[in-house]
Design brief:
InterPro entries: 3Fe4S_ferredoxin, Fe-S_cluster_ET. The protein has a single domain (2-63), classed as Alpha-Beta Plaits. 23% of the residues lie in helices and 22% in strands. It contains 2 helices and 4 strands. The N and C termini lie close together (5 Å). It binds iron/sulfur cluster.
Length: 64
Amino acid sequence: MKVTVDQDRCVASGQCVTAAMAVFDQRDEDGVVVLLDPNPSAELAEDVRNAAALCPVMAIMVEE
Ligand code: SF4
């Protein structure tokens, strides 16, 4: 699985961190998403898919 994020699109809502905190974080200064792990392991795949689905502005892209 390959994950990318669009920080310009992110509105700092935080759902991705709640869904997959091993893969996503938020910048301290403005809450914009930070990608911690662009190649998450298989056991994190469902959480990452959930994060992408929950993002209100579709700023998370997942390639299987
Ligand atoms: S869920 Fe989307 S908008 Fe919210 S912090 Fe994560 S990437 Fe940004």
